[in-house]
Write a structure and sequence with these properties.
Strand order of the largest sheet: 7-6-5-11-21
Radius of gyration: 29 Å
CATH class of the largest domain: Alpha Beta
CATH architecture of the largest domain: 3-Layer(bba) Sandwich
Amino acid sequence: MVSVPRDTPEVGKLINGHTSDPSLKVNSDTGKKTSSTFVSGKFSIDEPRPIKVVVIGAGYSGIIAGIRFTQRVQNLDLTIYDANAGIGGTWFANKYPGLACDLPSHCYQLSFENNINWSSFYSPGPEILAYLQGVVDKYKLMKYMKLQHRLVEAKWDGDAGKWRLRMRRPVLSAAGEAAFRQPPPNEAGASNIPKVEFEEFEDSADVLFTGIGNLNRWYWPDIPGLEDFKGKILHSAQWDTGDSSSGWEESVKDWKDKRVGVIGVGSSAIQIVPALQPKVGHLVNYVRGQTWLAVPFLDDMQKGLAKGGEVTNYKYTDEDKEAFKDPEFYKNFRRKMESELNAAQDSVMVGTEMQAAARTIFKEQMLKRLAKKPWIADHIIPEFPVACRRLTPGVGYLEALCEDNVDFVPSLIKRVTPEGIETVDGDRKVLDVIVCATGFDTSYQLDFPIIGKNGVDVRDKYLPHPRTYLSVAVEGFPNWFQTLGPNSAVGAGSLLIILEKQVDYAVEATLKIQRERLKSMDPKKEAVDDFDEYLEAWFPRTVFGQKCRSWYKVGKEEGRVVALWPGSCLHAVEALEKPRWEDYNYELLDKGVKNRFFYLGDGLTKNEKIRGDMATYLDRIDHPPVPSS
């Protein structure tokens, strides 16, 4: 091997066509020297600059973010904030009777973290929370978590290229789960909420990631007289379990002689009613609208597992779980399950055979389940298409309505009295407990400001309807990425794979910011306009755009679909896996630098400087398949 001397060249001398004087450059056309202020960086191209990421939310999205950011981003400072006293997001906050996943358990887990020990086809909420806690422990994420910390304001600092965050936390950790608890509207219940003192502090981030979803801003219903009720008032999103750690069952152990009213017919009410029915003296379900109760998802698979028997929530046997230990068997089982979920996409398209068949099958099944009280069918079976509202299997709900200790009341509520509820037809019922399963604010109007460029609050930006870039970014709000933002959920298919791909997108964007030494990146207005136009064109082809009251449309009967992705689950995966970075505006990080290739640094890699592995590319070989013919 010939050793090449590394003598310092004379200033201005051309070396391989380049001048050694950084203040001079050579015009390639004329060969003449011209002045230049550009100086290359004194760092390696693969030397990651320090980058700070703040994640808001420690549910599924925040947990996935914690795993992927720490896995893929070097020189990372990561903090995950959550207002709750524990991890799990909605699965920590919700403790209401009957809480369960309304998607099959084996489809409601991370793609890379299988759980072969789910107890049933639709798992109860505590089991899902335990799964998430296990994932957090396995990937050692608690060291990044700051619980009982609520974001009060996020404001973009354009000069520094950072998000300035104002956070709030209880002064004493002894506040427990009550720290951010909302008091019930009646005075008797409000006295049970302990007083908590708070303090605020500031933090900052190069990249802000929010995984807070749209089903956490719950509200008390606007019903006259609610504050006058003398009994107990509960909201499904804030079920009072008292000091018990054993769950909701302990909280209702004394209700066997109680008269309980449940307001609502959404996903929560549909789970609460059958759970409470055998535990209470009498139950009244107040239902304003209509809804389709789905045939349990993947019913044929359940029947297959049950060897042909009729079952609505199959309990996995030890034999099943033993079979799942075979990786290939389990992979095929899960693939079949997720494939069938994704295949339901055709049923949400207007005029398809699958949509027509769904209507026929669902109606037949609902009539069959309401055989003891057939009159209920006239009030609950809708005229609007199947899936116009969010579908839920509703295991046991219609059967519970037919029990002798249950009244189904389709009349509108006029007011709440001190003793119970009065409807517009004059009927009055005396109640001991009122359960409000009345949903959430799904308008994407956050209860805290996120302020982007030029002082614009995202809540104003989202009027008259939210406008995003592929659901993950917002024009004028640099370095902010989100999961479960506007137009990100799916009407058919696996939700969690969407969350994973949205997190992957945010991580790739963060790596780009770090690698290319960017101060900021945010979507171009014309790209957002084009995505908005695509949304407007796509939804009229679907049942989601038909007339029905749905949180897909912010609780309205008609209007813009703001919750769902404009396409199938697989369609969303494809779009998010292949970013169009040309759709973004960029600003360079280093002061005075205008050359986009400053990030190339000093022309070397880290390993060359430390004499490490000098052939790292051999670890990244893409072996082409050899054609068989």
